Amino acid sequence: MQVPPPLRVVVADDSAFMRRLLSEALSKSGFEVVAAVEDGDQALRASTSLHPDVLTLDLAMPGLDGLGVLRELRATGSPVPVVVVSAFSPAHGARAVDALAEGAVDLVAKPAAGEDLRAFLAELAEKVRLAASSSQRREPAPAAAAVRARPRIARPGRRRRPRPVVIACSTGGPKALAELVPKLPSPLGAGALLVQHMPAGFTGSLAARLDRASPLTVREAATGDSLDPGTILVAPGGKHLRLRDDRTAALTDDPSIGGLRPRADLTIVDAAKMFGSDLLLVVLTGMGKDGLEGAHEVRRRGGTILVEDESTCTIYGMPRAIVEAGLADGVHPLTRLPDAIAAEVA
Question: How far apart are CA 30 and CA 25, in angstroms?
Answer without folding.
Answer: 9
